[in-house]
Design a protein that fits this description.
Chains A, B: It comes from Asanoa siamensis. Chains A, B: It holds the Pfam family HTH_5. The structure is a homodimer of 111-residue chains. The first copy, chain A, contains five helices and four strands. Chain A has 111 residues and is α+β, with helices and mostly antiparallel strands. Chain A has one domain: Winged helix-like DNA-binding domain superfamily/Winged helix DNA-binding domain (Arc Repressor Mutant, subunit A), CATH 1.10.10. In chain A, strand 2 and strand 3 form a beta hairpin. At the A-B interface, helix 1, helix 2, strand 1, helix 3 and strand 4 of A face helix 1, helix 2, strand 1, helix 3 and strand 4 of B. Strand 4 of chain A pairs antiparallel with strand 4 of chain B, so a sheet runs across the interface. The structure holds a DNA duplex (30 and 30 nucleotides).
DNA sequence: GTGGTGCGTAATAATTTGTTTACGCACGAC
DNA sequence: GTCGTGCGTAAACAAATTATTACGCACCAC
C-alpha cells in the first residue's frame, strides 16, 4: 500500500505534459540533461526544475560522469515504477494523509 | 491504451490532496454537494470547482434529485476507475499527446 | 415576513507553479 | 585569448491554480 503523501508527490510529478514527455524520452534510455532539454524543447533551468520534481517523487535518478572531453555529464535514468490506482487505493492512501480528517456524516444521507 | 490528453486530465485531477480526499469520501458512497463540502471542510464554491475537474476527468458523475423537503440535491458518485501506470504506459500515452514531438537525438549519446 | 436547507455562478485575492534571463563555474579545441 | 561543450543556481516575471466572498435563485417551516 502506498502512503498518501508519496501518492500525492508521484501524481503531482506526473500531472504535467512536459514531465510526461521527459519521462517518455527517458523511457527509451537514459539521457544527459542538456540532451534531454534539447529533446523536449525546454530550457535547461526548466528541465532542472522539472527533474527536481520527478526525482523527489522517486521517478528518476541521476548520476554525474566525466565524458572523454572532460565534461561533467549528468545522466538521468527512469526509475521503473508501477502504479495501480482505483478509488479504493485512493481511499486507503488518503487515510494516511496528514491533515484534516474526514468528518463523520450521519448515515441518513447515504442512500 | 489511454490517450495522452486523457491521462493528463486524470493525473491532474488526482494531483491534489483536496480532491483525493473528496474521492476517498465518495468511495464510501455517494454524497450530495453540501454534505461533501462539510465532510472535507471546504467551501461549497470550492468543492464545486474541484468537482468540475474531477468530472472533466471522468472520475465522478452527478445527478440532481428532489428531496422530500423539496430541495434540489446534487448527488455525486465516484466513477469506478482502474489506472495502471508504468514508464512504458507513459511513453505510449505521450506519443498521442498533441504538441512538440520529441526530437531525434543521434544514438551516440545513448550509452 | 424570517430563518433554515439546498443550489450555481461571478468577482476578487492569494498562492503556487512554471518559465526565462542572467550569472558563473568547468573542460577542451583552436 | 575566444568559442564550443557541459554544469548549477538565483532572480525576476508570467501563468495557472486555488480559495474566499458575495450575489441570487429555490423550497419549506414557523
Amino acid at each position: 500500500m502506498v502512503e498518501g503523501d508519496e501518492l500525492v508527490r508521484v501524481l503531482t510529478a506526473l500531472a504535467s505534459p512536459q514531465r510526461l514527455r521527459m519521462l517518455a524520452v527517458l523511457a527509451g534510455g537514459r539521457r544527459y540533461v542538456s540532451d534531454l532539454a534539447r529533446q523536449v524543447g525546454l530550457s535547461r533551468p526548466l528541465v532542472h526544475a522539472h527533474l527536481s520534481k520527478l526525482a523527489a517523487a522517486g521517478l528518476v535518478t541521476s548520476e554525474t560522469e566525466l565524458s572523454e572531453e572532460g565534461h561533467a555529464m549528468r545522466y538521468v535514468t527512469v526509475t521503473p515504477f508501477s502504479l495501480s490506482l482505483t478509488p479504493e487505493v485512493v481511499a486507503a492512501a488518503v487515510a494516511t494523509l496528514p491533515g484534516p480528517d474526514p468528518r463523520d456524516a450521519n448515515e441518513e444521507n447515504k442512500r
